[in-house]
Design goal:
Number of helices: 39
Structural class: alpha+beta
Strand content: 15-25%
Oligomer: single chain
Number of strands: 40
Largest sheet: 11 strands, antiparallel
Radius of gyration: 48 Å
């Protein structure tokens, strides 16, 4: 009837007329027996659901005219009349029908009853879901006129869950709609103007929000003020205390009443009640009708006064919940098409959840409901705050927070004062006072552990015009290079350096912690308004990182500076340390103007806002709210977790605003004006002749700079070449280094396109200019020296000519690039052009800072005040839940929302700056502040430079460790480590997902059902034994005392119970002319009978009915069955079927009928008893299949199959954990699939030739196959449940779901095996784990021979045992079962007593020889061969020290954390491993295949690292 919804009103009326006609035809047939009645009652229900759809159609219609209104009314009227006529005929013609019939649909419910003159008065009728309605008739005196005319009356009470007249009248009808019809002899009775009102109670939705006001009363009274605006409605006042207490209410108009002056009064409760509920609320409800409010509209005051107890004790403070509402009763006036209230009034039994209507006529009834605003005057607010001992949680939290804030305030204020001393520009003490060119050097130290240094750091700048002197970076007034610090120095040079192309940093490795992690260095040339970024990100240490304390860095280009990787890594560190509000209290940067005190105050404000938002959630809940289900093993409920999430979401925008208040109003630093610097020319002093030693030092410095600039050249050069003081050797080395640099840059020419000059980076050009000037200066010095000034045998003219050649080479390579149109720039303006124009800007006024302080203070005080008040109104359970949810929301804000915000902003800003390179505004402001401070510095102070100080001498060049192979191996090891960790995580998640889907109660459910239904089932050998077993075991356990449950009372029977048999085809019927000897033709025993028969397997009749279906063959497709594998054969899902029913009496009757009609006979091939039970306690379905099958010798053999399935309905905690683990698990599967896809794209067909790839692809394919099967299993489960809900009397076949579930279980097991194998392959690189593989490989030839012998002996003994004992012992009936039993006999799980008892001589001989040959000889030799190979491999393992993966990991981890880690020697993977034990003889030479690096202590002759204290 769902199609009615789309029809117009006229068509809907025609449909209802058709339904009435069908109903009349239905009711014309007599009621012959009970079976007919059973057939017609479902028809009545179906008609009611159809008429319910008609009612829905009336609801969905949108009438626009009076004609449409009348049609909808006719639809509703005729729909209800049809059911009335059905009920009347049922009552008249059936003696078995109930006195009343209740029908329910999704939108309506009704009750049909027939009453007489004695039963109708004072009778009542109650309807439940979905439209609760209660009807009570008045006394016989009020119904006297009606009962005198009609001795019998049909009562029809209908409840509608919606308003069918919503579009005809705009009144807000709330709750159920009730309809009452009285009829007699199929005629409606009109009832009106009764002496007593008919009581109709209409319920509303219990979950409707009432917005109660909680009053925590500590005195004996309080006052409620209500403004009444209409005299047509009744006022409902509900004052519900937390615990039962006597209270008197006084009503006054425009004055506050008391016990002496009032208009009306009432004492509550009306009766003594103990338990809370609907009646408890009614006992504390006062209904004031319009007659009670006789003063008209205006303000009414209601005073609630506590009554003294009988003992005279003072009333204890209690918590009241106050709600005021207005309601009115209406009936539907069909003549005027509107809701009216005449003749109906609100009764005294009305509450917030229901309205009692007293009406003197019958029709459709409804009510409205509206919460009235009120104010509660509590006169003891101060006393309430003073009496906090009743619930001190909120106030205690606030007091603790205040004390904690004060302590942290003092600490943060002191830290801010200390940070102010760090904000300065340090003028280097070794600056030359006459120097006019200044460079600002900003050095950033990283945040890694032990990143700060106590050593003395020296810097040298290299530019296109020359280099600076080495300068010691120090400050006598503060500590420098602390962890995460920014130190700014002013470095002065006598002449400009031009465009910088390099920077050299070193330290003297002095102090307690000399290691230093330098993050970045920014050098700014104030005169040229340019700056250079040097991205260092490395350790300067002898025990961390690359173990170097002298490094040369080159400036970053725009591409490098705005690369996403650099932007993200630098931005996320900055955001976590500065914008992560909670963490930044401790990690705040001294140069940031957002102080620690301000950050602490913002965090406190957020915490107080969190508290007040959270307590408001718990305030609106009912005082009796109970704690619901916990989340996992934690003492946290789902409601607390949900409220904490809601609070965190609400607090997020507040968090954004509060966290940005102070940064937005920071005063802007004005840009200082620097005096213009006169451009200098190279003075003659620059070319003053130097001594030979000074020239040599100049040469060595240049060579050292070139070697440090490219460490690869340092690997290729011999140490004697750069440590020599011979000028010619140094010049030759310088020439080689310059050529190597030029050739290295020239490599880009072949890969960079035709125009090499256009592709030369700017940094390399400046570097070549610097080299050119250095060569010119050296040549001039050599020319000035001449051959006569030489104190040592050096050819200075030759060196000078050599340098001249280098100059010409550099000029040919650098001069063409001067006209290059596009070069990758490495210098940037100090400030952006927009910021540079704001030199006179003073920023925002400073008084805005005080406004922010005032705003935070007012917000904090208001939040604390309301938190204190609200917390005093909570009971103990609510206060506990409030504290838990508040802590959860704070933790979410600290550990989830803030980090997520930081990561999101870091990614977003990195992407924006990567696409549109620009400078950070905060960095611009910091730069302006540095420039302002540098302008105030006096750079003309007298400086002191002790050139003899060894600190200015760069560390000696030492040959570094050759690391290319080690670096490659480390990359491979780290990749292997990552794969191993991911694989371990994959295994853990896979086992978690498997464990979450498996139920530990499967065994107990199997055991309980097995014990119930298999008692004496295995004793059935003949078909005559089946019926006694079914009568005494099957049926008593199948139908329990509770309807629908089996005997145990816990397992619910899902659907019907099915008896199904397959039959052997009988003799073929031939014509009568055929001789009797030829008429009987036996059939093949494997064939299945598919013919239809009559009762008792007689030939079928032509006029068969549905009752004969048990004698008709039903195919597998018809039954929806599937083949079943038995002990002897596979049987189809079809056969001859009988359904036992869902109750015991019907099943007994059916079994008796089958036994009498010989349904089971000699042609029965197999019999199946199938049913499904569901145990809600363990959330498991169990498919029970009892099988009796014949093996063609006349006897039957019993077998039982129990298959369990997990229901889709899971608990919240199980669902959450399972869902999270499976989501992460499939994300890893997607990751694996992506990696394999990339490999397949790169390798092509070669991909399928590698075992590792095939293993990974198998894991991925099986995982996705499991996902597909899980989806299929869910769809099958939903289909089975839909079939069950559609028809609960049919047999629901779960066999396909069982097969799919079995496939999933097997695939999951295989997947676990493959994942474990993959993990083993990843761990196989460990030398100790490789012993197993090498042992098996070496012993493989011997193992194959032994396994062949074992297989031959096993086969022989299995055949012998099968031939000797297969006829009498079931374990040896087949060859396969005999082999399995024999293996069990060898390992001790099978018993030999039965064999010896059956045949003592032969049995003893077979057992004795098998034990001697198999166990004592063959298997021992097999194990010995493996152990011998293992002992050899283990001996070799002791002499082979491979670099363990854990050593490399610990070394890298120590570098990351700043922990010193002593590395041992490493085996070079490129060399051959140590030979077998033959080479481990008394040989004094170290094996050539070992390369030792970074070792501590000497080496022994065999290449084993021995500590010094262990020698001798």
């Amino acid at each position: 009837m769902a199609f009615i919804l789309g029809l117009p009103q006229s068509a809907q009326v025609d449909v209802v007329d058709s339904l009435i006609y069908l109903t009349e035809q239905l009711l014309k047939s007599p009621f012959e027996n009970n079976s007919t009645l059973d057939f017609k009652i479902p028809v009545t229900v179906c008609l009611f659901h159809s008429l319910s759809d008609v009612v829905k159609a009336g609801k969905a219609s949108r009438p626009s005219s009076k004609h449409d209104i009348e049609q909808v009314e006719n639809i509703l009227k005729m729909s209800l009349l049809v059911l009335g006529e059905i009920q009347e005929i049922f009552v008249q013609q059936s003696q078995h029908s109930e006195p009343s019939v209740t029908l329910t649909s999704s939108v309506a419910s009704l009750i049909l009853s027939r009453q007489n003159i004695s039963t109708l008065p004072l009778s009542s009728y109650t309807l439940g879901y979905p439209a609760p309605v209660r009807l009570s008739f008045p006394s016989a005196l009020a119904l006297k006129e009606l009962l005198n005319k009609h001795s019998g009356v049909n009562v029809q009470v209908t409840g509608l869950a919606f308003n069918p007249f919503k579009d005809f009248d705009d009144k807000n009808i709330v709750g159920s709609i009730g309809s009452v019809l009285l009829s007699s002899n199929r005629n409606l009775l009109k009832v009106h103007d009764l002496m007593e009102g008919i009581e109709i109670i209409l319920w509303r939705n219990a979950s409707m929000e009432t917005y109660a006001t909680n009053v925590n009363l500590s005195t004996d009274h309080f006052t409620v003020t209500v403004n009444i605006t209409s005299l047509e409605k009744s006022l409902i006042l509900c004052i519900e205390p937390e615990s039962p207490v006597s209270v008197t209410l006084y009503l006054g108009f425009q004055y506050q009443p008391n016990h002496t002056s009032f208009h009306l009064n009432i004492t509550l409760p009306k009766a003594q009640v103990q338990q809370k509920g609907e009646e408890y609320a009614w006992e504390y409800t006062w209904v004031l009708t319009p007659e009670s409010l006789q003063f008209g509209v205006g303000t009414y005051h209601i005073t609630a006064a506590l009554n003294e107890s009988k003992e005279g004790a003072q009333p204890a403070p209690t918590l009241f919940s106050v709600v005021t509402a207005v309601t009115q009763c209406y009936f539907w006036d069909r003549h005027n098409s509107t809701w009216r209230s005449s003749g109906c009034q609100v009764g005294p039994r009305s509450t917030l959840l229901r309205t009692e209507c007293l009406c003197n006529h019958l029709t459709y009834f409804g009510s409205d409901f509206f919460i009235v605003p009120r104010t509660v005057n509590v006169e003891d607010t101060i006393k309430l705050l003073l009496r906090v001992t009743n619930n001190p949680i909120g106030v205690s939290l606030l007091a603790s927070l205040l004390g904690f804030y004060v302590l942290l305030f003092v600490w943060t204020w002191r830290q801010d004062q200390a940070d102010m001393q760090k904000v300065k520009v340090t003028v280097l003490a070794d600056n030359d006072p006459s120097s006019q060119f200044h460079y600002l050097v900003q050095v950033s130290t990283g945040y890694r552990r032990r990143a700060s240094t106590t050593a003395k750091v020296v810097i040298t700048l290299y530019g296109s015009e020359g280099r600076s002197e080495p300068h010691h970076l120090c400050d006598s007034q503060k500590a420098v290079f602390e962890r995460g610090a920014l130190d700014v120095f002013l470095l002065s040079t006598p002449s400009p350096l031009g465009d910088l192309h390099g920077l050299r940093l070193w330290h003297d490795n002095s102090g307690v912690s000399p290691s230093w992690y330098v993050n970045q260095v920014i050098v700014s040339d104030v005169a040229s308004n340019r700056k250079w970024h040097f991205l260092c990100n490395c350790w300067l240490a002898i025990d961390l990182g690359d173990c170097e304390r002298d490094r040369v860095f080159i400036p970053a280009s725009k591409k490098e500076l705005f690369a996403f990787r650099h932007l993200f890594s630098s931005t996320i560190v900055e955001k976590f340390t500065q914008d992560y509000l909670w963490l930044s209290i401790a990690t705040r940067h001294p140069w940031d103007q957002f102080t620690r005190v301000q950050r602490l105050t913002c965090c406190t404000t957020l915490l107080l806002c969190n508290m007040v938002i959270n307590v408001m959630f718990w305030k609106v809940n009912s005082p009796a709210a109970q704690r619901d289900e916990q989340v996992g093993p934690f003492a946290v409920t789902w409601s607390e977790l949900l409220i904490s999430i809601q609070t965190a979401v609400i607090l997020f925008p507040i968090n954004l605003v509060v966290g940005r208040l102070f940064p937005l109003i920071q005063p802007q630093e004005p840009l200082p004006l620097f005096p213009p610097v006169q451009p200098s020319c190279l003075s003659d002093a620059s070319f003053e002749p130097l001594s030979v030693s000074e020239v040599v030092e100049e040469l060595k410095e240049t060579v050292g700079f070139l070697l440090r600039r490219n460490t690869q050249l340092l690997l290729e050069c011999e140490q004697s070449s750069w440590s020599s003081y011979n000028v010619n050797e140094l010049v030759a080395l310088l020439s080689n280094l310059v050529c190597s640099h030029l050739e290295g840059q020239g490599c880009h020419q072949s890969a960079g396109g035709p125009s090499w000059a256009d592709k030369v980076p700017e940094n390399h050009y400046h570097f070549c200019c610097y080299l050119l000037r250095v060569l010119q200066r050296l040549q001039s010095h050599f020319s000035a020296l001449g051959p006569t000034q030489a104190d040592q045998p050096c050819d200075f003219p030759d060196a000078s000519s050599h340098l001249q050649t280098l100059q010409e080479l550099l000029e040919t390579r650098t001069l063409p690039t001067e006209q290059g149109p596009s070069r990758e720039a490495t210098s940037f303006p100090i400030l952006s052009p927009e910021e540079g124009k704001k030199s006179t800007s003073n920023g925002l006024p400073k008084w805005l800072t005080y406004v922010c302080w005032l705003l935070l203070g007012v917000t904090s005080l208001a939040a604390a005040f309301f938190t204190a008040l609200y917390s005093l109104k909570l009971n103990k359970e609510q206060a506990t839940s409030w504290v838990i949810s508040m802590i959860l929301s704070v933790l979410q804000n600290v550990f989830i929302i803030q980090p997520a915000k930081v990561i999101f902003l870091s990614v977003l800003l990195s992407l924006i700056w990567n696409r549109m390179p620009c400078l950070n505004k905060e960095k611009e402001q910091q730069t302006k502040r540095i420039l302002a401070l540098s302008a105030k510095c006096s750079s003309s102070l007298a400086g002191s430079r002790d050139k003899r100080n060894p600190i200015y001498v760069a560390p000696a060049l030492n040959s570094p460790v050759k690391r290319p192979e080690r670096t490659l191996k480390e990359k491979e090891l780290f990749k292997l480590t990552g794969d191993t960790l991911v694989q371990i995580l994959f295994l853990v998640l896979l086992m978690t997902a498997v464990n979450s889907t498996q139920n530990a109660s499967r065994f107990y459910l199997h055991h309980a059902l097995w014990k119930s239904f298999t008692h004496r089932f295995s004793e059935i050998k003949l078909l005559e034994h089946f019926h006694p077993w079914a009568t005494h075991t099957l049926l008593p356990n199948l139908y329990g005392d509770y309807r629908g449950f089996v005997t145990d009372g816990n397992s619910f029977l899902v659907g019907n119970v099915l008896l199904r048999q397959t039959r052997v085809p009988g003799a073929t019927v031939f014509p009568s002319k055929v001789s009797p000897q030829e008429q009987v033709k036996p059939s093949h025993p494997d064939l299945e009978d598919t013919e239809n028969y009559g009762v008792n397997w007689t030939p079928p009749e032509t006029n068969t009915t549905g009752s004969d279906s048990s004698w008709h063959y039903q195919s597998q497709e018809t039954l929806g069955g599937y083949p079943i594998q038995g002990e002897f054969a596979t049987y189809s899902g079809g056969g001859y079927v009988v359904r036992l029913g869902r109750n015991s009496s019907a099943a007994v009757r059916i079994l008796q009928h089958l036994e009498q009609s010989h349904w089971l006979d000699h042609r029965t091939k197999s019999l199946f008893v199938e049913f499904v039970v569901f145990n809600a306690n363990v959330n498991l379905f169990c498919v029970v299949t009892l099988i009796l099958e014949s093996n063609h010798v006349g006897a039957f053999f019993a077998s039982v199959r129990l298959d369990t399935l997990t229901s889709l309905q899971t608990s919240k905690k199980d669902f959450a954990w399972s869902a999270v683990s499976q989501v992460i698990y499939y994300l890893l599967i997607g990751y694996y699939g992506f990696i394999q896809g990339c490999r397949l794209k790169q390798q092509g067909w070669r991909f399928f030739t590698r075992k590792k790839n095939l293993l990974d692809m198998s894991i991925i394919l099986i995982a996705f196959a499991i996902l597909v099967l899980d989806t299929k299993l869910i769809s099958l489960h939903k289909r089975n449940m839909a079939q069950y809900h559609h028809n609960r009397d049919r047999f629901i076949n779960f066999y396909e779901a069982v097969k799919v579930n079995s496939a999933v279980i097997h695939l999951v097991g295989f997947l676990l095996l493959l994942a474990t194998v993959r993990l083993w392959n990843l761990l196989h690189h460990n030398s100790r784990l490789q012993v197993i593989g090498r042992t098996l490989n070496k012993a493989w030839s011997e193992m194959v021979g032994f396994m062949l012998v074992i297989l031959i002996l096993l086969t022989g003994y299995a055949i012998a045992l099968n031939l000797a004992f297969g006829w009498s012992i079931s374990e040896y009936r087949t060859f396969f079962s005999s082999a399995v039993t024999f293996v069990g006999l060898l390992i001790g799980i099978s018993h030999y007593e039965e064999i010896i008892a059956l045949c003592p001589v032969l049995g003893s001989f077979l057992i004795l020889t098998s034990v001697i040959l198999m166990v004592l000889v063959i298997i021992n030799l097999f194990v010995s061969a493996i152990l011998m190979s293992f002992s050899k491999e283990r001996m070799f393992l002791k002499s082979w020290k491979e670099a363990a993966l854990i050593d490399v990991l610990l070394q890298k981890l120590s570098s990351l954390l700043g922990i010193q880690y002593a590395r041992t020697h490493v085996l070079d993977p490129s060399q051959k491993p140590l030979q077998r034990p033959k080479s481990i003889q008394a040989n004094s030479q170290t094996p050539s295949g070992l390369t030792y690096r970074d070792y501590n202590g000497p080496l022994t002759a065999t290449g084993i690292h021995v500590p010094q204290e262990a020698q001798g």
